[in-house]
Structures are given as C-alpha cells and as structure tokens.
Design goal:
With 181 residues, the protein is of the alpha/beta class. It has one domain: P-loop containing nucleotide triphosphate hydrolases (Rossmann fold, 3-Layer(aba) Sandwich), CATH 3.40.50. The chain has 5 helices and 8 strands, in the order βαββββαβαβαβα. It has helices at 18-25, 77-83, 102-115, 135-141, 161-176, and strands at 4-12, 34-36, 47-49, 53-57, 63-69, 89-95, 120-125, 153-155. The strands form 2 sheets. The protein has a 6-stranded mixed beta sheet with strand order 4-5-1-6-7-8, with helices on both faces. A two-stranded antiparallel sheet has the order 2-3. β4 (53-57) and β5 form a beta hairpin. Bound molecules: guanosine-5'-diphosphate (GDP) and magnesium ion (MG). Residues 12, 14-20, 49, 72, 125-126, 128-129, 157-159 line the site of guanosine-5'-diphosphate (GDP). Guanosine-5'-diphosphate binds next to α1.
Amino acid sequence: METEILRIAIAGCVGAGKTSLIRSISDIEIVDTDKKSTDEIALFKDKTTVALDFGLHSLVPNQLLYLYGTPGQPRFDFMWDILIRQVQACIVLVDAHRPEYFHYGLQILDFVKQRVQIPILIGLTHMDCPTAATPEEIAIALTLHNASQTPPLMVVNPTQKASIIEALKVLTAAIMKPEII
Ligand SMILES: Nc1nc2c(ncn2[C@@H]2O[C@H](COP(=O)(O)OP(=O)(O)O)[C@@H](O)[C@H]2O)c(=O)[nH]1
Ligand SMILES: [Mg+2]
C-alpha cells in the first residue's frame, strides 16, 4: 500500500514551542534551522528559527506526517505565503504566559484563513507555567469566544510526545473529515 503524506504547518510566535514540538515528535533527526539571532530577539532567546524546521512522524501505518515549523518573525512572511498553500492543516501555537503576543496568534489565524480553507488547531503552550492565562482568556484575546465556527483550542505541551500525539490525532481526523473542526 502506498504511503500517504499529510503536510502540517506549525506556526506561532517566537518561543511558543514550534521547534520543541517538531523535535519531540519527529521520527528523524530534525532539520533544525535555528541560528544565533543578532537582533532584539537575542535578548529573549539566544537562538531563533530563521527558515523552516522540518520533521516527520508516522501516527498510523501507511501515513506520514510532514511537519513544517514556520519562522516566528514577520519578516519571513513571504515563506509563509508559499508554505500555507502546500499544507493540509495547521497548528497555531499560542504561548499562554505571554499575553503581549496573543495578538500575533490572531494575526496568524487571519493570515491563514484569508488564504486557505484547512483545519486549524490552536495549541495552547506553556499552560504549566504559573502565570499562564486560562483557555477562556485566550479565546477572548483571539476573538474566538462568540464565533460560530471556531478552530478548537487544545492544551499542547511541545516538550511531551503524548501531548503532541493527542493534538495530531485531532488534526488528522479533521483532515480526513473536515466537518468535525
Ligand atoms: N514549560 C514549558 N516549556 C515549554 C513549553 N513549550 C515550549 N517550551 C519551552 O520554551 C522554549 C522555546 O521553545 P521553542 O520550541 O524553541 O520555540 P519556537 O521559537 O516556537 O521554536 C524551549 O525552552 C521549550 O522547551 C510548554 O508548554 N511548557
Ligand atoms: Mg524555533
């Protein structure tokens, strides 16, 4: 039987957990494009993603998930524009303990929805941090609280494989049966 390939984009602001997610779940050594940053982000994090992170994972036999971690910085938006048209689904990671970046999650959602109609899952990361916002607060910040058809929110810990698998199961089910998301 032929192996089916499903492509999934992993988006989110710097520090949201994109590289960790791909590294934790990938069946191969990830193609890690982290480079030392030279700009203001260096204050926050000494490495940042400058191109795409890439990893793959087989959730079920005869199916391979290709995972693309998108760059977290707006200046790479042109790559985003190309990538988002090639994927079957998208995970938007939102760092729950950095409310100052919630607007960035909203921008990503708008960016994706304006270009493609694919299942989107919002993965709330850093929920184990004591200062994390609640899912309800984040839903309000992302203006999802009263929309009739909203992407599902799920807590995802990008450092824990079991947590990522749960999210990937929801997303792959939605790819197969789009009406469930
Ligand atoms: N405690 C905790 N740490 C996390 C979580 N998600 C990511 N991290 C950590 O946050 C840091 C930034 O993650 P990284 O994957 O580099 O973010 P990226 O910029 O989106 O690629 C790393 O040290 C991760 O281990 C989470 O849910 N909980
Ligand atoms: Mg990264």
